[in-house]
């Protein structure tokens, strides 16, 4: 009996010791060629990229189709994430676990936040944030849950700040005056091999400087009219299926993502004024969080579909999708980046 107790204690001690040790980085579970992972939130664009991939091979993992191959001379793995922060997180981590992903690219469509930009412009922000991760207070007074203003640390939370001060909460303007919502932005907790076991809080996730430098140099052949704008071979494109302003690639600024489909012009203005946000969508910051947690460099390209929450009819937005311009221009930027990255490396 004594030997059994000693053996049990030793086993418990050994299991505790092993539990306390940081886990080794897992090997790729499916295919181990070093690759750039491309996560697309827009199905038609993923189709364009897959169609141009050489030596394609499809792998179905948990229902998701991952295509490996060589695109513009660069080994890649391509997947469609589907809309939402949850899908983006899940599919990106699945890719990282099953393939040897050395860098990540996210591409797709987004709403505009900066009113100076136009439908069809492709944004390449230099950082991403999640402003809809919030502390929802009863009013616009700074929460003091843990004893002093802005302190919510006893809840395992941290309010977001800019220039050393908490970001002001969102308020709705009405005819009777401002109505406080009590929505205070929070930072996200993230655990990595480098910051364990304490972890850290982050608001912004900077894109990779090396990838951003390549993106600044690319000159993709963007179009004003999508492929479906021309009804007959050699004919003139239908003006109704062309955007009015020639799209441009715009590099820099903050992109933001959230779990809400943004159709509120007041919140869009708030994001622009408080964060100088340039674009809003529902996937990239989630991918950025996964990239940061796994120490994988990333970048994102987003084609603007409209001004998020705009109430007026926008013929350009209709033309962008009806003509196939959205996916065509977005794919052109991704391909131009891969060309530039191949030359850079």
TrEMBL record:
Q: Which PANTHER family does this chain map to?
A: PHOSPHORYLASE SUPERFAMILY PROTEIN (PTHR21234:SF42), PURINE NUCLEOSIDE PHOSPHORYLASE (PTHR21234)
What does the organism's lineage look like at the top?
A: Bacteria, Pseudomonadati, Pseudomonadota, Betaproteobacteria, Burkholderiales
Source organism of this protein record: Scleromatobacter humisilvae
Q: Name one GO biological process term.
A: nucleoside metabolic process
Query: Which InterPro entries does the UniProt record give?
Result: Nucleoside_phosphorylase_d (IPR000845), Nucleoside_phosphorylase_sf (IPR035994)
Indicate whether RNA-binding appears among the record's keywords: no
GO MF annotations in UniProt = catalytic activity
Key words, A-Z: Signal
Segment forming the signal sequence: 1-19
What protein name is recorded for this chain? 5'-methylthioadenosine/S-adenosylhomocysteine nucleosidase
Q: Which Pfam families match?
A: PNP_UDP_1
Q: Ranges for the Nucleoside phosphorylase domain?
A: 35-337
């Amino acid at each position: 009996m004594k030997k059994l107790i000693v053996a049990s204690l030793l086993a418990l001690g050994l299991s505790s010791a092993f539990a306390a040790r940081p886990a080794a980085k897992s090997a790729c579970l499916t295919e181990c060629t070093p690759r750039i992972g491309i996560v697309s939130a827009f199905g038609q664009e993923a189709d364009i990229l897959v169609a141009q991939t050489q030596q394609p091979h499809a792998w179905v993992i948990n229902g998701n189709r991952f295509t490996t191959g060589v695109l513009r001379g660069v080994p890649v793995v391509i997947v469609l994430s589907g809309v939402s922060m949850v899908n983006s997180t899940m599919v990106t981590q699945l890719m990282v676990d099953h393939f040897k992903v050395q860098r990540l690219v996210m591409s797709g469509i987004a709403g505009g936040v900066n009113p100076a930009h136009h439908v069809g412009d492709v944004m390449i922000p230099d950082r991403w944030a999640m402003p809809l991760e919030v502390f929802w207070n009863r009013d616009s007074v700074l929460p003091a849950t843990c004893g002093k203003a802005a302190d919510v640390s006893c809840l395992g939370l941290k309010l977001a700040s800019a220039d050393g001060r908490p970001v002001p909460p969102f308020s709705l303007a009405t005819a009777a005056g401002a109505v406080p919502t009590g929505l205070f932005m929070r930072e996200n907790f993230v655990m990595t091999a480098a910051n364990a076991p304490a972890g850290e809080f982050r608001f912004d996730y900077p894109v990779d400087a090396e990838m951003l430098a390549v993106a600044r140099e690319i000159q993709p052949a963007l179009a004003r009219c999508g492929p479906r704008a021309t009804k007959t071979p050699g004919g003139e494109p239908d003006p109704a299926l062309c955007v009015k302003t020639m799209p441009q690639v715009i590099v820099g600024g903050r992109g933001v993502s959230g779990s809400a489909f943004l159709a509120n012009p007041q919140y869009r203005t708030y994001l622009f004024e408080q964060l100088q946000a340039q674009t809003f969508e529902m996937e990239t910051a989630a991918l950025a969080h996964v990239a940061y947690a796994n120490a994988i460099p990333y970048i994102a390209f987003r084609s603007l579909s409209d001004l998020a929450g705009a109430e007026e009819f926008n013929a350009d937005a209709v033309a962008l999708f009806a003509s196939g311009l959205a996916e065509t221009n977005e794919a052109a930027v991704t391909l131009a980046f891969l060309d530039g990255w191949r030359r850079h490396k």
